[in-house]
Amino acid sequence: MSDMEENSTEWGSLKVPSSELQLKNLLSCGQSFRWKVTEDTQPQEWTGVFAHHIWILKQEGNTLFYKVYPKNGDNPPTQHHCIHLLQEYFQLDVPLTKLYQEWARIDTKFAKLLELEHCAGIRILKQNPIETIFAFICSANNNISRITQMVEKLCTFYGEKITDLNGKVYYDFPLVEKLQGSEVETNLRAEAFGYRAEYIRRSAELIVAKGDITWVNELKKIGYEGARKELQTLIGVGRKVADCVCLMGLGYHEAIPVDTHIYKLGKEYIPQLKETKTVTDKVYTEITDFFRTLHGQYAGWAQSILFTSSIRTEESAWFEENGKKRKKDCSELIQKIKRLKTT
Predict the structure, then answer these.
(1) Residue 91 Ramachandran class (φ > 0 left, ψ -120 to 50 alpha, else beta)
(2) Which residue in the list 109, 240, 282, 325 is annotated as catalytic?
(3) What is the tens place of the pLDDT at every residue in 224-235?
(4) Tag placement on the chain: N or C end, fewer CB within 10 Å?
């Protein structure tokens, strides 16, 4: 199967209330870096990779539509299997609407988010833990666009080809063993990974030495605190990255990654933190303990909504500020042209 056309597969469907899932909010909020949106389709179509397949997703009302493309030579998955994979990936067994209502009842700041369209239907994706480890190693001092590019390069250079689709070649995330060796580090440095190139190479070697995927799977069984501490033995994996992996790759719903956005929010919730300047380990613990007490078993899910609200608010402020600046610049340019015409 090569150079597949998009219409070579029929759309399958799965009933999901829009209050439980909003693709446009979820797939762009920095959990996974494998999704790209086709802006000129209505409704929007998202193309990405998970479970070793290429997926095209769209949402209309309370229905999630999907197309799925397997690896070259593989039989396409059955409809039953596709639905199972989607339910697992989006963790549709978690009652998000009830959680939103409970968080809004106990948290007045969270209650205000229910009015915002960009905060609706944000779940936690259940991702390949190996992919989350290396994707979030790439996230250090980085933005979503650059992280996406780096993850794409890792897949293209070292992942197994899935298939061609609409003129683009898609690759699976690489096996850990493929990310070992000095040549990998040299290549990634040449591709502008910077210090992350060493982190990726050394962490890959450590994971293989610890037992590879067997070691990673054991982390799902030893409890959140133990898993987080084990992850922090990897190079380039601090507490925040470890919490990202615990939350999105290992199934620990209580894990709360604290970045600058959550730190600022934490200072709003916890008065005694207002004078703090940096996120020390003590401050990090204080913030995560507070939010776990407030939001309960799925505190990591609540944090993801607070995080998304924060970055969307910052984006809106940036566009508003720069829009005003461009408007002022255009006005000044028009006045300058008018003056030239009159001279």
Answers:
(1) left
(2) 240
(3) 999 999 999 999
(4) C
